[in-house]
Design brief:
CATH superfamily of one domain in chain A: MetI-like
CATH architecture of one domain in chain B: Orthogonal Bundle
Strand content of chain A: under 5%
Number of helices of chain B: 11
CATH class of one domain in chain A: Mainly Alpha
CATH topology of one domain in chain A: MetI-like fold
Largest sheet of chain B: none
CATH topology of one domain in chain B: MetI-like fold
Structural class of chain A: mainly alpha
Oligomer: heterodimer
């Protein structure tokens, strides 16, 4: 279809990095989402305030800007703090870590809303019944809430994943060798920008298509015991 | 924390914010018209009308915006001669045009999918009643389906507006000086990384929540007929309390 002048392997390498960043960021986002949802539903006003501030700020600022803040801002901030304490240190941020941290942090805010909805979707009577049976809060969470929360959260998490994997394209801006940056390098050598970006676009489209099918399968598996109306 | 550098760079940053808002507004305006047309084609029963539109929506929703921008901005360079021949090269040479074109197509695809859901959510009985009154085609769309569908689509559309407003930050990658672009050039010169970026972030935050607030008011006004009527006794009591 396209003559990639022997640079096709570079795109596959880039695709691998993209998927690595995406999966790591998703795991972080799930952890952040559970924490955020717990904070939003907590009785403690400080936890509620922290969780609400988190989602408000993250959803109001573009991902690219947040990525730049984390990648360039954090080392400078740490160095400035260290200088004030009388140390001269040099902090360098690994692009992979910065990318995963930022994306995980951003999509954690979206996962927070997903998990909050899922928490609220578990019938209250079930938790009360669990307490009445003598389960502690932790045990009730593990045995009663969690198995249902993740089932309710699956469709939402699928959406988060789809948006997240597309947002990984931004890590090319901080010089991480993902699919976008590899295409960019290959374009510089071969002078065939359209071909390379089109192939890259098709690879992203492939991820989306596979994810859609995978999501359906997982949801069917997760809902295997649920009676349908 | 260096406050002087923030104050000094504020004029430039407001200039950048203006470009960001301008791009968002144009993309929304043109994207909206595109989306209505695309959504109408998407619900068509004719498969030859529907199929290309499905492919368009799938492509623009399934790939990152950054790829789309690069595909149009850098990719058009590969067809330079052809584009020069039909006299379009001077447009594709401009990052502004490429950025706007990409944003229009992108938001058009997302919005079309929102409108499709809304069009399909218009109660069947209303469409049937309109047909019974002799309306069809464009008249049916203009008088019955679209007004209802747009109102149903409003909450989802407000999300898309916010999304688009924030995605415009990507145009800074193809050298446009929007808010993010201005912030990046200032940081490259002064190295005051977090002062500048956080100021830019606060500006985005302010506009985002301003827009959300406007949408909430519009939604409130458009849904008056759906709200429960205020209890007259409470209204009188509140009025009396306000006077005393």
């Amino acid at each position: 279809m396209f003559d990639l002048k022997g640079y096709g392997w570079m795109l596959w390498e880039g695709l691998a990095t993209t998927l690595e960043v995406g999966v790591c960021a998703l795991l972080l986002a799930i952890v952040m989402g559970l924490l955020g949802a717990w904070g939003k539903l907590a009785r403690n006003p400080a936890a509620r305030l922290a969780a609400n501030t988190y989602t408000t700020v993250i959803r109001g600022i573009p991902e690219l800007l947040l990525l730049l803040i984390v990648f360039y801002g954090t080392p400078t901030l740490l160095q400035a703090l260290a200088a004030r304490l009388g140390h001269d240190i040099r902090v360098d941020f690994n692009a992979f870590t910065a990318g995963v941290l930022t994306l995980g942090f951003i999509y954690g805010a979206f996962a927070t809303e997903v998990f909050r909805g899922a928490f609220l979707a578990v019938p209250k009577g079930q938790v009360e019944a669990a307490y009445a049976c003598g389960m502690s809060r932790g045990l009730a969470f593990r045995r009663i809430m969690l198995p249902q929360i993740w089932r309710f959260a699956l469709p939402g998490l699928g959406n988060v994943w789809m948006v997240l994997i597309k947002a990984t394209a931004l890590v090319s801006v901080i010089q991480l060798d993902d699919l976008m940056r590899k295409s960019f390098i290959a374009m510089g050598v071969t002078k065939l920008p359209f071909d390379f970006f089109f192939v890259a676009a098709m690879m992203y489209l492939g991820i989306t298509a596979v994810s859609m099918v995978g999501q359906q399968q997982i949801e069917r598996w997760a809902n295997r015991g649920v009676r349908r109306a | 924390m260096d406050t002087q550098v923030i104050i000094d760079s504020l004029p430039a940053m407001f200039g950048g914010l203006w470009l960001t808002i301008e791009l968002t507004a144009y993309a929304l305006l043109i994207g909206f018209c595109l989306a209505v047309a695309v959504a109408m084609m998407r619900v068509s029963r004719n498969v030859f009308v529907r199929a290309p539109v499905i492919a368009f929506i799938f492509f623009f929703r399934g790939t990152p915006l950054l790829v789309q921008i690069f595909l149009i901005y850098y990719g058009s360079g590969q067809f330079r001669e052809e584009l020069t021949q039909i006299g379009l090269w001077h447009l594709f040479r401009e990052p502004y045009f490429c950025a706007l074109l990409t944003l229009v197509l992108n938001t058009g695809a997302y919005t079309a999918e929102i409108f499709r859901g809304a069009i399909q959510a218009v109660p069947h009985g209303e469409v049937e009643a309109a047909r019974a009154c002799g309306m069809s085609g464009w008249l049916l769309y203009r008088r019955i389906i679209l007004p209802k569908a747009l109102r149903l689509a409003l909450p989802a559309y407000s999300n898309e507006v916010i999304q688009l407003f924030q995605s415009t930050s990507l145009v800074s990658i193809i050298t446009l000086l929007d808010l993010t672009g201005v912030a990046r050039t200032i940081v490259a010169r002064t190295f005051d990384v977090y002062e500048i970026y956080i100021t830019a972030g606060l500006m985005y935050l302010a506009v985002t929540y301003g827009v959300l607030w406007i949408f909430r008011i519009v939604e409130h006004r458009l849904s008056g007929h759906l709200r429960e009527r205020e209890d007259p006794a409470t209204a009188v009591r509140d009025a009396l309390r306000a006077r005393s």
